[in-house]
Structures
1.
Amino acid sequence: MGSVLREALLTGLIALLLFAPLTGVSLSGYTLEGHWQRPLWLAGWVVLGRFALGWLLSRRRHVVAHARPHRRPSLLASWIEAHRTFLLLAMFVVALILPWFIGKYWLNVAILAWIYVLLALGLNIVVGLAGLLDLGFVAFYAVGAYGYALGFKYLDLSFWTALPFGALLAACFGVMLGFPVLRMHGDYLAIVTLGFGEIIRLVLNNWMEFTGGPNGVRVPFPSFFGIEFGRKAQPGHVTVHEYFNVPFSNEYRDIFLYLLLMIVVGGLVFVIRRLRRMPLGRNWEALREDEIACRSLGLQPVMVKLSAFGLGAMTGGVGGVFFAASQGFVNPTSFTFMESAHILAIVILGGMGSTAGVIVAAVILTVLPEALRDFAEYRGLLFGCAMVLMMVWRPRGLMGARRARFDRSGVA
Amino acid sequence: MSFHILVQQAVNGLVLGSVYGLIAVGYTMVYGIIGMINFAHGDVYMIAAYLTAIFLAALTLLGIQSPPLIILLVLLLTIACTALYGWSVERIAYKPLRHSTRLAPLISAIGMSLILQNYVRLSQGARSQGTPTLIHGSLRLFENGPDQFVQITYAQILIVVTAVIGMALLWYWIQATAMGRACRAVQQDRIMAALLGVDTDRVISVVFVLGASMAAVAGTLVTFNYGSFDFFIGFVIGIKAFTAAVLGGIGSLPGAMLGGLVLGLAESIFSGFVNTDYKDVFAFSLLVLVLIFRPSGLLGHPEVEKV
């Protein structure tokens, strides 16, 4: 107990030295303003936290020695597992009904949440399944969005043509970048993808004549087999409220986009589930665990990684097309490194390799910042803390998926 | 005209390259020791810039007026405080994950980078900050008319000289001290060094501290020279410094400095003669090209992987 207290006080002293210069004063022109209480408060909390942690750790050290030989799975986990199909169906019904009741603002938040689910599932293929750290995932997102925007501007592409076009364009960028780069160590891949993300953003920002630079590009809203969602239709077309003979509402187009995203996400989840059971998916996970062993068994690491990278990029492209469609406008400031960090945080918190975890984390990490908008300025700090804590304590994330050593369904 | 521009950009490039080199040695030392990129290193440099301005303002308020004395004191204080940050980054983001999978410490370091950025943004504000100019005056070379000369400011000279001194001290420390020998041993084979009695945890912490100290020197010098910074400066310059480390040969100290100079020169020449808008694209593209075509860099040696 004495050593725990001493350690806590020492930690507090170090924290005070760290915090004092940067939080104790703030720059004001060429002079300083004092905020002397802030470092004291922060150091105080550090002492308390460290003491509590030390006490818990020392207590756990005793408990472990007397641990019971077998631990039953928790009741909640059992209940969830037993009623899995029912729960999935219930969530599906709720998700289906939701857009009609939550109003325009939260409907837009929900659309953004679905886009982040899409992006996180794509990055989860790269980071979670294949174990490749991609820090420039936002580049493929940008390629998809600008693929739609510039495709419409120069080639008059509609949304439905731009969807596969954006996806394939992003996939091409992914393969083009990935092919020479995936031979490297993971660290090099991380920083090269980071650099690539910056290259894409800077080119979009500076290539005024082609991309409009910081001014961005306008994007039309999608139609559905000629049915449009504006107040008035183009000649020869019909609007949704005329077609169904209901009063006009701005929400119809958002509801349409929401439902469309649900379908796409559902399809993607299905594809990922199937892929994980195919040799390709198993190759991804095997490479993540031990690349040298895989190579000795005859796998081609570059081609396996490239498939994960390309598929992830393609998904990012699809997300970009939907983002452009929902915003009606694209601009380089939407595609900074912070977006990549946001998506990466979703994958890490949800559990690398876990599809369900990633979906839950994506929804939470999109809705929560909106619900707690007063704390928006702390978002980056909290994301960073969450990433560090998660890696230290639960590297597999909150709902981390580990493939069972043996498939139990075939055993009595 | 072209001659003067070329020489001027070469001078600018050497100064910039010295800064990249100072930050690059941090990347290269950490990579040599634990085989990983310290993603928070650029933000440690950013913190050094803020600390420089804060200590400068504080010492001025205390009444110290002599520029050489105030520069020296600010440098020492910034190095000390930034070294503590470097130590803390290692202690929080890397040490608990010493025996974890490869991905976990990388992600932990990215999280630490986000923490440092947002911590400074929240405590100091998001707008750009500045410092007053302390070092005035310049030399003019090759003067040939009112618009044709090459200018080297005394601040730039200070940057290059201090960078050289810093690198020399670091090189001496690595080559001639017991702890330096321990660092080299851990770089070659961490497990064997541990078996032979080297305290590898302490060596790794010391390496992070040294890397942060060199970044602090860079941060201080740049702040004195350019006088403008914000919470995001660590991001781009961090990538460029890593490019320099890779260009020179990751794991090689002389390579890091050489890589910094080459990158600084290349970037300056590109800016002067091609396009300033795309100079960052140029630097990042250089990183991609180097990693593709010569992963071991100028002074590095290809790594023989043991299975």
Note: DSSP finds 17 helices and six strands in chain A.
2.
Amino acid sequence: MREIKTVTILGANGAMGSGSAGVIAAFGGAKVYMLARDVEKAKQGIEAAVASVKTDTIRARMIPGSYDADLEKAVAESDWVFELVAESYEVKEPINTRIAKARRPGTIVSTVSSGLSIGRLAKAYDEDGQKHYYGTHFFNPPYKMILCELVTHSGNDKKVTQALGEYLDKVLGRAVVYTNDTPAFAGNRIGFQLMNEVAHFAEKYADKGGIALLDEIMSGYTGRAMGPLATADFVGLDVHKAIVDNIYDNTKDEAHETFKLPGYFQKLIDAGKLGMKSGGGLTKVVKHADGKREKFVYNIKTGEYDPYPKFDIPFIKEARQKIKDSDYKGAMDVVKKASGVEADIARYFISRYISYSLSLVGEVVDTKENTDGAMGFGFNWVPASAFVDFLGGPKETIKLMEASKIPVPKLLKDAKEGKKFYELGDKLDARSLFKG
Amino acid sequence: MSEKVFVLGGEQTDFQRNWTKEGKTFMSMMREVLDDALEKVGISYDEIKRLNKENRVAVFVGNFDAEQYANQGHLGAFLTEVNPALFGVPGARYEAACASGSVALDAAITHIRAEDYDLAIVLGVEVMKTVSSSVGGDFLGTAAYYDKEAKGVQFPFPKLFGKLADVILERYELKEERFMDALAEISRINYANAKRNPKAQTRTWFMNKEHAMARGGDNNMAVGGRLCITDCSQVTDGAAVTILASKDYTKEYAKKTGRKVDDIPRVKGWGHRVAPITFEAKKNESVGDKYILPWTRQTVKDAYKRADLDVKNIDVFETHDCFTSSEYAAISAFGISEPGKEHIAIEEGTIDFGGKKPINPSGGLIGVGHPVGASGVRMMLDLYKQVTNTAGDYQVKGAKNGLMLNIGGSATTNFVFILGK
């Protein structure tokens, strides 16, 4: 296994930078140079790192510094340089040029990026540097969300990849998913496909309940703790836009059109209504004078915020009760048999999610266990393969896809009936991700 | 007795899960764990129906406090909700605080030894994340003498086991630094072992020796005298099942599943002793004895005697490390060291995963988590895995015989079982 004793974190004061540094200093026991624009910010990053992993023992081996004064010295001493500066080529490329000049041969350099090309960023380096350059896409907050997408590019060396993967897995305790250098990699490509298409449906069904209705249909019984539109509101509509635009501009798959940003998302972004971080977006919470909080939802038709509605959809109620009783197949049977537009929508998105996840095997990842891991560990969504089993196996799932006019991926067509399709086993109990 | 009761296997839930957050209950937990256990062991509900027609199967539910945590009693009858195949199957709930799983095992073993039943399903279950930790701490206080030891006391059990640490330190005249280092090492080992266990509560948590040694402050608060958070096991939601069988049924089962009877482990010995309930009474009674917990030691001795084995024959231990001080005292109770010299066994690596007498390769209560009524059953399941070489990444090489110690209260109810081939 690769020995990593000294690490440099660039972007040490951000939530992801400090959280990742905490994990590396604690689990990895490494000395960590915490670099930010100025030393004060770096010191704040150290305190945030300590708080994130709840151990004072790491404080003494975290050294604050600034890019201007300390980058070259820190990089020259490091076994791993982890760059977490802003998500753009304009910011990352000049920093890479400086790292490239200072790094020793053999030092790993990686970036946390949701979608930039790792191959393009690697170009700042010489041959040895390119060989050791990776995407290490951690999820937020890193201590709790253990997924790491390890993104490789054509210049990597398989032995180095294996050693880094082992370090991330065995030492840092990450659930490592290996992905190719494709737009948004595995987790975000699948997750944001669903979120964005659900957003389109919210517009289509604006008269029937819009955003709130779609999140109700796609709620816990479909295998996610938070509705897809609540998730978009949580990550921020600007971040959502950056991710779907990147995928739309750089891919051409069967779901291509679903990555177009809905017009009302753009409207909200233009008005500065970016989601929870800006006090409102698709939803907002208003605190009244008596201290009571009330939730509102954006009305796509009127542009106003309406009180968040409650729904009474019998098949959802019934499915939730089955999940509550840990009868997962029973819940999926309810979904399969239910009638009405809401049930049609639920079946469409369950099919779409499974189909799209499995269709990326071969392009984005080598095995379905990688997409399953990305969704299970990164999004806390029931992985596609597990869904196939809960639905009653490949044949039943294919029937559902065909009824919803969703393409059937080859992997599913070729699957053997009567054998478990989900292969992550004890690594992730998919049942825990359904909410009753 | 070693030819009478066999263990066919079982399953546990993932102790990291929070069932209330998932919108599920103790009932859904029972359903999942029993379905999983039967599938793993290879026994169908139809088979249970068949055995039930001849009154050859029974269920034993270990649970401490569903009344308070889940507002539900009569848990022994709840397996009928899991599957109609269990209608009519004799079943009852067994309670002995943190040893509830063991008292259920004990009842099952007794019935099989008496040839009342051929198959016994033992299910330990506790849902605990339904309440805050301070409310839960008060509920747990009923495992002590509530009026005398727990009423109005925040987190009474860390305090009781903190007192045990005090008595160990004083009675054996240990150097405090060395003793506390040994307790930190116990904690380190349990957390490190749990990292290899895919069902452990703490498998993704950060812990190392340095952190265990850094007692005090916000990140490792003192909770009971000398004991801090890292010295404690933590409550969680969880259930575990082990399935026991008579020799006759084991023969049928072995034939059906293509296994050899000799490869299926059997319960070789057991011990069960109850010490005075208050810690003060325990302490007073033990004055002049080599052991601070003489009844715990006696329970181990009883089990060795019944199994006709000794510590030298035991390859792996699962112990009740509700706190580091309880594991510390267990080391001499097992006979791994002389009383008062437990720290030497710890320092020499004897109880570490790769040591001569590994304790808690699963991670123990500190690492795996402590869903009170499930812990004893989980320990038996872990012994089964070890002696059948099916423990995966936490397998102790070549383990043939295993011993478990499960205690209720402040080492009040003591249960020991020895499992081997």
Note: Residues 187-271+311-433 of chain A form a domain with the N-(1-d-carboxylethyl)-l-norvaline Dehydrogenase; domain 2 fold (CATH 1.10.1040.50).
